[in-house]
Every structure is written in structure tokens, then in C-alpha cells.
């Protein structure tokens, strides 16, 4: 049973109440992180206290910021940056993840002074620039093989590492990095803090846990499954030029108060907002070409119910965390079925039913069939040829 008091307390948790300083709270807010995710609520204070962490969490849980924020906070508190060799090492399975995690360190550390230097190193590209870049870096995000190469070429030592993060440890093992990892572990100082994230807790991960971690705090994040049964999906068949009027018709006739509309381009987003506004519907867009402050403001207004329609591109929608959104409309279909489920999953959470509508042009029909097949659910189609859209 849900303890209401406890729930209320959890909802009051802010990034500052978890122990983060102003420059980090500011950066998190700019990224539209309004409230800490559960994993962040659990991990941030423990990491700040120097505890080892065993985290069972997948991508999408907010695990990256759950270790990036407290690590940056520790730099901020000591005002010390590393010497020649990095004091934080993050091991990741792939080149893409290395780049992504390093980016998160940079973005969330944007307001820190002194600056914290993060460098990503991975295989498949020339080693020389990386040999130079790691010199004097505070944080190194690396794939295991390339890190060993850099060490064997004397570009780097692990002797100063105080915090070790193993991100997606199960994937590292899956990709055959076990030997490289064991070798790296022998090169690390014994006295250090270790943070391990894995999507699953298999035997190999248990072994790493037993040998590397000291009485870790275990954090497990249950994945929030998109419950398709809670979402009423409808597909409106419509010609491309009638999409705009149909959207306004739906918003008005269903008296929607809060609707998130997805589009595929920045231009469509801006056009829609102009037309909606002309029709007396309060709307604003968030997309990559809007400044950070505007995005934050729009999102806040939308959440507060002061804005009927928020138009978003997928990219910007990733960070949007709104519970109990009543309506999602796909003005344009997303390319991947996964994105489709992700988009409509913003409605129909917990016990509240939500509605997800998609506008399907003749050109979209084939693609929409694929989406339905992948999703494993058929969506009822509504023919709109007879709908009179005059005046919308
Ligand atoms: P991750 O699980 O680390 O891959 O993060 C998943 C996504 O959630 C990323 O796009 C983050 O930018 C976003 N995110 C992380 N923490 C928060 C938060 N507290 N509020 C909103 N979005 C977040």
C-alpha cells in the first residue's frame, strides 16, 4: 500500500535538499530536471557520503545524473581539481555511451568554478589526441580496451583514482571486456569509492560486487512499464492538408485542457503554435532552437496548467516528466515504433487513463501498420473525410 505521507515527503525532495549546491541545481533546472528521479533521490546523498553503490537500473531511469551530479558536487566542495592524473574514472561499454556520459558531466558542470575537466576515451579512433587530452583531466570516461592502451603507452595512470564508476557493467561483460576489466581493477588504488550500475544482477555482477564493493548501498529501480491497456489509442485518417484544422477541431470539441503534441520538425512546431494561437488556443513550443530559459518557462507553464498545448519534438520531449498527462497527440508519426510507445507512455500512468491520438495521412499508413505490429496492439482507425473542418 502507498503511504500517503511518505509519498508527499518524496514529492518534496528537491535537488538542493539532496545536498547539491546552487551551480549544479541551476544546471539541472536548465536541463528541465524539475524533480529528482527516484534513483537520484537514493543515490545522490549516499554518493556524497562516500558510500559504495550497487545500482540495478536501466537507461532511462536517470542513472547517469544520479552519479554525475554528486561527483561534480564533491569537486565543487573541495574546490580541488586533479593533478596530472584523473581522480574519477567512469568505465562504459561503448564509444557512444562514453561520449554521452562525458557530455552529461560537461552540461551539468557548466556553472562550476573551477571548471572540472572531463575527457572521453574510446577505441576506433586515433589514440594520439586522446593521449594529450587525458593529461590533467579530472574525470575520464573510458571504454576498457582503449584505457588499457593509454596506460601501456604511459599517457595515464590510475594511481590517483578516488571514485570508480562502472556504468552498464553487465553490457561490458557481455561485450567481452571481462579480462580488460580485471586488469584495470588491479591497477586501481585499494582505497576508493566504487559505484556500479547494471541493468541486471547476474552471477558475474555479483562476483564484481563481492570483490570490488565495500558494503554497498543497494538501489534497485523498477522499470516503469508503459501499460498500453491504460491508454486509449485512436488513429485519425486524414489528408495532409487537413491535419492542422483536424488538430484544432479535436482540441476544441474534446475541450482538452492539457495536451502534448508531437511533431517531427522545429518548423512544424513553430507553425502549429502560430495557427493554434490565432484560433484562440494557448500554445507554445519547446524544441532545440529555443533558448534554455524559454524551454524551462514553457514547461513550467504547461505543468501548471497555464498552457493548453505544448508542441514538442522528440529530442526535447525526452526530459519531460509530467505525471498524468491526459492527452498526447502525434501530429506527425515518429520514425521508430519505440518512440511511438515512449511518446504515448506519457499518458495513462498509474491508475489514470489517458488518450493518445495519431493523425495518419495516406503516406503514413504503411508505417503505422509497422508501428502497430511492433507494439503488438491494433489501433482503432477513425475516418475523418466526413468531418466538417470549416472554421477550424
Ligand atoms: P539515463 O537513464 O541516465 O539515460 O537518463 C534518461 C533521461 O532522463 C535523460 O534524457 C536525462 O536527460 C533525463 N533525466 C535525468 N534525470 C532527470 C530528472 N530528474 N528529470 C527529468 N529528466 C531527467
UniProtKB/TrEMBL annotation:
Domain Helicase C-terminal: residue ranges: 245-390
A molecular function (GO) term: RNA helicase activity
Source organism (scientific name): Spirosoma telluris
Pfam family, one: DEAD
Protein name: ATP-dependent helicase
SUPFAM superfamilies: P-loop containing nucleoside triphosphate hydrolases (SSF52540)
Residue stretches making up the Helicase ATP-binding domain: 44-219
Keyword list, A-Z: ATP-binding, Helicase, Hydrolase, Nucleotide-binding
InterPro entries assigned: DEAD/DEAH_box_helicase_dom, DEAD/DEAH_RhlB, DEAD_box_RNA_helicase, Helicase_ATP-bd, Helicase_C-like, P-loop_NTPase, RNA-helicase_DEAD-box_CS, RNA_helicase_DEAD_Q_motif
